[in-house]
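User: Could you write out the 3D structure of this protein bound to adenosine monophosphate? I've included everything you need below.
Assistant: Certainly. Input first, then the structure.
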Amino acid sequence: MEAFKNLGISESILKALQDQKFEKPTLIQQQAIPLVLTGHDVIASSSTGSGKTLAFSCGLIEQADGKRGIQALILTPTRELAEQVAKAISSFAKYKRLAVVSLYGGVSISPQIDLLRRAQVVVATPGRLLDHLERRTIDLGGVKTLVLDEADRMFDMGFRDDVELILKACPKERQTLLFSATISEDIVGLAQKYMKEPVELEAEKRVDPTKLHQVYYDVQDRDKFSLLTHLLAQEKEGLVMIFSNTRQWTDFVTDNLRRLGMDAIAIHGGLSQQKRNNMMKLFHSKRATILVCTDVAARGLDIKGVTHVYNYDLPADPKEYVHRIGRTARAGNDGKVINIVGSRDHENFRRILSLNKMNMPCEKTPAFEKVRSVFSGDSERGRRDGGRPSQHTQRSPRAFEPSASSFGRSGPRSRFGGSRGPRDLSRTPREASPSEGRGGERTFRGHSSVSSQPRRDSYRR
Ligand code: AMP
């Protein structure tokens, strides 16, 4: 506790930290807390899991007066992150009797209006906060601290204008803290416009690259689900997250894993907030051990014990890949990332490796059993796209050039710039998995055209 005390943290928060068995501050906490407590504006580049919530909230907790109205506002990109941050702040402020309220869409607005009457700290997603501003059910006139959490993600999600409107609705005399995994030009522009001589900080990543083992399997699109089930059965795991690019694929994977008796649950933007919260609870409590999700769940969430991240699809945006893999190898634990790369992922995967400057070993595709999978989603669009039969069984050896850098595990390079040596391109995937049939009994087959253009997802996440 001495180390926290030396940063200037007061007794009431120290006591709360002691209850949570925090022993020493993380790097971002060491760097940011003294600045935050002395009222500086701060731009911190820090990843999920770095301990940033305490770093940005200690000052606003110290300052807040339980007898006054809203004095601090934290903006987050997603509903789940709003919940998580509000919960963390409540836990740090438990000896100060502050009312912390989270505001997000997808749930009824009336209970939020009631809670706002007593709130000192508000954690909100931009859309719902603007709703409250338009209805005049929130007064930001007393805000002394404004935090933009995961600012880059908010911008990526198209909230830039909303964030600017909210910044304008807050008093000019305030402290502004901006936390973001990456600091883009856009963010710098916003900071120049709305922050006062911000101090820039760059902190450690709690994801340890030496603990993170990343591999990929190069398979036919139609074999992806079979390989996934095979690997899930083979690998000894704690919690597993399986990422997919779209709601339709997320439902497809979840439904089919459940049909096979696996305890898979889904989270994506098409589910009600109540359902998303329930699913998160199931996963946090390990009553379900496989979470299939779109990128809504990728950012900011701190889920303990995720040992494996699967990319069932590779994201079009290389930054999303980094956020996905950041769910594992946290807090000193090992983690494995398994990329199931079908033909439809080639372009995205190549871009991920090149822009993130990564090498990655290609794993030899094991023999696996053909598993019947059914597309039971209600989206005709999904059916049309996902149901297209495979066109290509072999790919051009020139399709993948090794990437230039040396991040990740070393060893002989593969077509994707990784170890284990180049795959034998003369072997068809059918030979690589001799137990596989042609899949006549399946009702779903992924399409496999290799595009020369970056693939953009046509579905919503
Ligand atoms: P955050 O980046 O704020 O989401 O924090 C990630 C996780 O680290 C949360 O579970 C926190 O409770 C935990 N945490 C934050 N700071 C510390 C610390 N100094 N010591 C131990 N755990 C911490």
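The CA atoms of residues 182 and 316 lie 17 Å apart.
User: Perfect, thank you.
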